[in-house]
């Protein structure tokens, strides 16, 4: 799939963009540790050239914290198009400003900042409304334009389908248009509290807000990874009366029950999830949020269809959600989808008046200051609840399969570099993936 996608992209040429993915290397040829993609289930630590200021709005960061995301697993499984061997991954990271380009006005070397996972221009129609993920001017992918009619912003470390920008699972990273895409962090907010403003916090907040959770709602959440765990908390903060979480990983079900008070359904025990939801909630859900993953088909039919490339994505969660919500209920898709799924229950969607909302890639700039100032600083939302592990950057290649198999109760990981501070009080100490328990 990758070869065909890359060939087609080459044939289509590139779309115009105001920033470019290729970076200059720092003088002297010094290298840094970085995690690069080489093929399906094949990621490796490499020595990559340290980036230098390449365009005048650039900022170079020394990374003090990075992590792995469920979205990275789609890359690991080769499910996102236009990956190339040697691509540096990672779209969630923070750091200290190391160098600034001549046009950068608001940032100085030494300042602590968190990066948005998307690269926004700050000036287009979408950026004017802080819809940074939908920026029109930072992604050269004609393939995405061809498939979707329009294209998202460029993203860090997320294939050439989103611009081919080197990512932040590295010791240094170049952030184009730094004034727009970096948020300064106050001294009294730890790295562990700040890092997840990059993606997980705005993303989980966005699905709850964009799908319209309101006081009294009964909310179902498919998938209890970091996005689902945070979405459950946001739903409660927005007044949900009940949250029902669906997953099959025992540690994740238990985590949601004990830390957030979520009622759970283990779909390895209740194979008919919809039936179980109606037993728990005869009226049906008001809101359903898809925080799962399209690369884990549940049924034999969809495993076969996917293997035969008759579909790229699966509709199983979408169908469960459409059937489980009440008439005129709302369903939000924040889980990533890439292409096509067969046998969507379009009848139930139409007849019940279900509002099926593609939440899109979350616009980080729309929410990150609100989340920092109104929730993290006053202590209303402490993101450290989801951090289960901290590992050194050297372990990143081993972290991919460990996170993929969800071993040792892993939820969210803090990945440290030689530039990181010591772990904050109450947060996990450094461990090695080799020492994690396999169940
Ligand atoms: N739209 C965005 O801006 C955005 C940003 C970040 C992540 N995401 C997406 O959100 C999703 C969740 O991310 P994460 O980091 O929490 O991922 P994760 O892989 O850690 O968690 C996904 C969870 O879904 C569960 N799951 C799989 N199939 C399921 C099913 N049929 N029913 C119920 N649960 C099921 C898995 O067991 C797992 O616990 C991913 O698809 C990711 O790509 C989207
Ligand atoms: Zn992410
Ligand atoms: Zn823009």
UniProtKB/TrEMBL annotation:
What Pfam families does this protein map onto? Answer: ADH_N (PF08240), ADH_zinc_N (PF00107)
Q: Which InterPro entries match?
A: ADH-like_C (IPR013149), ADH-like_N (IPR013154), ADH_Zn_CS (IPR002328), GroES-like_sf (IPR011032), NAD(P)-bd_dom_sf (IPR036291)
Domain Alcohol dehydrogenase-like N-terminal as annotated: residue spans: 56-186
- Domain Alcohol dehydrogenase-like C-terminal: from-to ranges: 226-293
Q: Which cofactor does it need?
A: Zn(2+)
Per UniProt, the keywords (alphabetical) are: Metal-binding, Oxidoreductase, Zinc
This one is known as: GroES-like protein
What Gene Ontology terms describe what this protein does at the molecular function level? oxidoreductase activity; zinc ion binding
Write out the similarity annotation. Answer: Belongs to the zinc-containing alcohol dehydrogenase family.
């Amino acid at each position: 799939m990758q070869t065909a996608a890359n060939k087609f992209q080459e044939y289509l040429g590139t779309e115009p963009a105001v920033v470019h993915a290729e970076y200059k290397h720092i003088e002297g040829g010094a290298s840094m540790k970085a995690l690069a993609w080489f093929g399906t289930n094949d990621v490796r630590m490499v020595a990559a050239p340290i980036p230098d200021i390449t365009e005048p709005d650039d900022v170079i960061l020394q990374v003090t914290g990075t992590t792995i995301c469920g979205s990275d697993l789609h890359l690991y499984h080769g499910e996102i198009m236009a990956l190339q061997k040697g691509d540096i991954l990672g779209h969630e990271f923070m750091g200290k400003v190391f160098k600034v380009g001549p046009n950068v006005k608001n940032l100085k070397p030494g300042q602590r900042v968190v990066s948005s996972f998307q690269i926004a221009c700050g000036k287009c129609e979408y950026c004017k409304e802080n819809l940074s993920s939908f920026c029109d001017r930072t992604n050269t992918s004609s393939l995405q334009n061809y498939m979707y009619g329009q294209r998202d912003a460029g993203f860090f470390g997320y294939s050439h389908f989103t611009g081919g920008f080197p990512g932040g699972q590295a010791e240094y990273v170049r952030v184009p248009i730094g004034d727009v895409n970096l948020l300064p962090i106050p001294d009294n907010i730890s790295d562990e509290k700040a890092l997840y403003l990059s993606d997980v916090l705005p993303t989980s907040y966005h699905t709850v807000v964009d799908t319209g959770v309101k006081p009294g709602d009964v909310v179902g959440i498919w998938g209890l990874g970091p996005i689902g765990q945070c979405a459950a908390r946001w739903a409660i903060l927005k007044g949900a009366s009940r949250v029902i979480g669906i997953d099959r990983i025992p540690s994740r079900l238990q985590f949601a029950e004990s830390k957030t008070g979520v009622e759970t359904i283990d779909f390895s025990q209740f194979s008919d999830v919809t039936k179980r939801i109606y037993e728990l909630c005869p009226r049906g859900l008001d809101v359903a949020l898809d925080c799962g993953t399209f690369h884990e088909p549940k049924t034999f039919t969809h495993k076969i269809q996917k293997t035969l490339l008759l579909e790229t994505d699966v509709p199983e969660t979408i169908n469960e959600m459409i059937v489980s919500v009440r008439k005129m209920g709302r369903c939000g898709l924040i889980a990533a989808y890439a292409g096509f799924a067969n046998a969507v229950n379009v009848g139930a969607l139409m007849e019940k008046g279900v509002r099926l909302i593609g939440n899109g890639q979350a616009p980080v700039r729309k929410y990150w200051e609100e989340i920092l100032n109104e929730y993290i600083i006053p202590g209303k939302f402490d993101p450290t609840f989801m951090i289960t592990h901290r590992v050194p950057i050297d372990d990143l290649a081993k972290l991919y399969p460990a996170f993929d198999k969800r071993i040792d109760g892993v939820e969210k990981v803090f990945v440290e570099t030689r530039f990181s501070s010591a772990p904050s009080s109450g947060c996990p100490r450094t461990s090695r993936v080799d020492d994690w328990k396999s169940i």
